[in-house]
């Protein structure tokens, strides 16, 4: 004879299926109680792999940023390096200095050659400045004391000066200078008038000798630009002068 429990099972054959169905439809967490440790291990492993990947990416970005910053710093500092070498092993700044010195020496030799070839080597002084050459001579080579009329030897000297100016292209300022000695009674009331009148006389003579008038202009400076002390006779004689300031372009000199 069957027991009551077996009888109950036999009388309700669908109860087993219901149990299976309930197990299937149950919450996975409740159903997989025994599998919880394995599931936790799997989830933790995925998180570790993800964090490792993020760490590697962060390290990669840091390295790329450091390399980029380093290259930018080198580019910014390179132009200002004083030790930058030219292909011949000479620094760029030294090479430019040597070139300028060579150009200046060539200019000086050209001026000396031209002045010497026009009988002005011992008569005129010269000074080279950026953009100009300044030729000067004592006023007594052209004028008598306190006078604006050219003396007897002036035209020969001015003719030689005109030959020199023909070698150049730029405009020419003719500047008259005096010492600080006040003028006595005469044609001119001040050294301003005397220096300006002398400069104008020289300009007119140069125009008559063939120098284009649009290249020339006259200026009187009186005693405002001395080159020596007016306390001595020698200094005053040096300050009484006529200057020819020639503007220079990129080409310094016409070769003749």
What's the SSE blueprint?
Layout: H1 4-11, H2 15-25, H3 28-31, H4 36-77, H5 92-117, E1 125-129, E2 132-138, H6 154-165, E3 172-177, H7 191-208, E4 216-220, H8 233-239, E5 241-247
Parallel strand pairs: 3-4
Antiparallel strand pairs: 1-2, 2-5, 3-5
Main attributes of the structure:
five-stranded mixed sheet, disordered N terminus, disordered C terminus, 256 residues
* Helix vs. strand class: alpha+beta
Biggest pleated sheet: 5 strands, mixed
State the helical fraction: 40-55%
Shape: elongated
**Cα distance spanning the termini:** 148 Å
The helix/strand series, from N terminus to C terminus, equals HHHHHEEHEHEHE
What would you report as the Rg, rounded to the nearest angstrom?
Answer: 51 Å
Low-confidence stretches: 1-14, 82-87, 251-256
Average pLDDT for all residues: 77
Percentage beta strand: 5-15%
Biggest sheet strand order reads 1-2-5-3-4
Q: Strand tally, please?
A: 5
What is the number of helices? 8
Oligomer: single chain
Please give a structural write-up.
The chain has helices spanning 4-11, 15-25, 28-31, 36-77, 92-117, 154-165, 191-208, 233-239, and strands at 125-129, 132-138, 172-177, 216-220, 241-247. It is an alpha+beta fold and 256 residues long. Strand 3, helix 7 (191-208) and strand 4 form a beta-alpha-beta unit. The longest helix is centred in the first third of the chain and has 42 residues, at 36-77. The protein is elongated, with a radius of gyration of 51 Å. It starts with a helix and ends in a 9-residue tail after the last strand.
């Amino acid at each position: 004879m069957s027991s009551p429990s077996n009888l109950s099972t036999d009388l309700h054959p669908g109860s087993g299926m219901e149990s299976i169905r309930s197990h299937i439809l149950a919450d996975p967490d409740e159903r997989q109680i025994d599998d919880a440790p394995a599931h936790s291990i799997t989830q933790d492993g995925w998180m570790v792999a993800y964090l490792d990947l993020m760490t590697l990416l962060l390290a990669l970005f840091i390295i790329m940023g450091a390399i980029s910053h380093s290259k930018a710093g080198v580019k910014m500092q390179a132009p200002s390096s004083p030790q930058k070498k030219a292909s011949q092993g000479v620094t760029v700044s030294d090479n430019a200095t040597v070139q300028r010195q060579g150009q200046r020496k060539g200019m000086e030799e050209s001026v000396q050659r031209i002045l010497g070839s026009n009988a002005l080597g011992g008569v005129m002084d010269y000074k080279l400045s950026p953009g100009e050459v300044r030729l000067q001579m004592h006023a007594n080579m052209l004028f008598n004391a306190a006078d604006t009329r050219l003396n007897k030897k002036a035209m020969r000297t001015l003719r030689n000066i005109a030959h020199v100016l023909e070698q150049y292209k730029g405009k020419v300022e003719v500047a008259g200078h005096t010492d600080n000695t006040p003028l006595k009674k005469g044609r001119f009331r001040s050294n301003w008038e005397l220096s300006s009148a002398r400069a104008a006389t020289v300009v007119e003579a140069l125009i008559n000798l063939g120098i284009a008038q649009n290249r020339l202009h006259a200026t009187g400076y009186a005693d405002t630009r001395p080159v020596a002390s007016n306390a001595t006779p020698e200094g005053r004689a040096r300050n009484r002068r006529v200057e020819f300031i020639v503007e220079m372009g990129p080409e310094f000199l016409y070769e003749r």
